[in-house]
Write a structure and sequence with these properties.
Shape: globular
Number of helices: 2
CATH architecture: 2-Layer Sandwich
CATH class: Alpha Beta
CATH superfamily: Fe-S cluster assembly (FSCA)
Largest sheet: 3 strands, mixed
Structural class: alpha+beta
Distance between the termini: 45 Å
Radius of gyration: 13 Å
Order of helices and strands: HEEHE
């Protein structure tokens, strides 16, 4: 099975939880040096918990299922350690 298929299977194990809150995730790219670049979709892209979802859910699921992956990055969220990071406004 190809790496991309194995990454998709790992994401499929997390998708039901994301979809419950109106979100999803897609693979943007898998680089030659085995870095997976993900795009958070729907409410996941603007959720204040997206960094935690990414680190504790998506990244861990991929690395566990596909150990040869060297890194997992999100292309559309800001790292919480970035001094210029801003949190989305709460929905009222």
């Amino acid at each position: 099975m190809e790496i991309r298929e194995r990454v998709e299977q790992a994401l499929d194990s997390i998708r039901p939880y994301l979809e419950t809150d109106g979100g999803n995730v897609s693979i943007d790219e898998i680089t030659a040096d085995k870095v997976v670049k993900l795009k958070l979709l729907g409410s996941c892209a603007s959720c204040a918990m997206s960094i935690m979802t990414f680190k504790a859910g998506l990244e861990q699921a991929i690395k566990k299922a596909v150990p040869e992956i060297t890194a997992v990055e999100a292309v559309n969220i800001t790292d919480m350690d970035d001094p210029n990071a801003t949190m989305p406004s709460p929905v009222i």
